[in-house]
Amino acid sequence: MISTRIAFFAAGVSAATAPAFAETWDFPTPYGDGIFHTENIKQFAEDVSEATDGELEFTVHSAGSLFPHAEIKGAVRSMQVPIGEFFLSRLSNEDAAYGLDSQPFVATSFEEARRLWEAQEPVITELLAKEGLMPLYSVAWPAQGLYTNGEIATVDDLNGLRFRAYNAQLEEFAQLAGAAPVQVEEPDIPQAFSTGQVEAMITSPSTGANANAWDFLTHYSPINAWVPKNLVVVNQRAFDRLSDEQQQALLEAAEAAETRGWEMAEAEAEEMTQVLADNGITVYEPSEDLLNGLQEIGDEMLESWNQTASDEAKEILNTYQNSGS
Ligand code: PCA
Known about the structure:
325 residues, 6-stranded mixed beta sheet
């Protein structure tokens, strides 16, 4: 289908006969090609292309190659690009509602993460609408685990470690554990370790495996402290310019991407932990002492979250906590 259309253009047929809305959208993401979220975006792109008969195509720019992570949301907002992906909780400095999925021990399983997203989605949709943005889909990462050199028995063992962080919550967490946080984007992880900039991290088995963590780390513990998410947003004006059929195709493909992405995340949680082990990383269950210490840090963080959160943000937590059982 696609190649026919390219041939059609290549034959020099005048633009006047081209489909009225044929367009290509640049689609930046901070994450690399080997990451399942990026694979999911590429499938999303194929689905949209197929459903619109090639009238809407995405060019995926991975690993922060078009915009650095911190600029992607703003770039979509200002229409420099119509669509983009970022780590949802990085927006927590704008509103505490965005940060809940990265609060330690609030939602620690996929089931809890789904319920948290259900509670977050309406509030976040409204917040983003004020900025002319519309969420298309959100997909979780596998639960976050602890990577170090040597086994960590208690929180005290984290004291003084140069700790890789990817958002404000992880920075706060590391600080409360007595570690020294350093912000490093995912594609830069191997270099940050090999140059000694950092020596420990908390992230998913997907990211650890993708970064070849065994080259610079020896131990992994599935502390399952939180299940954070990525979010894909579209600029509302860009969306409104599409035909009804194209809009529908985009929304349907987005829904499929959300379902597929969560399934990928669940599969990766196990598979990528196995990859870590197969490559020589010692995978060990966290001790009671360690978990208790981490839980205390989580409690302290939630207390300060509560002090700054808006009523709407607090209502998310309330809805989520009442949605179980
Ligand atoms: N990987 C990304 C975000 C969370 C995760 O599992 C990262 O480490 O930056």
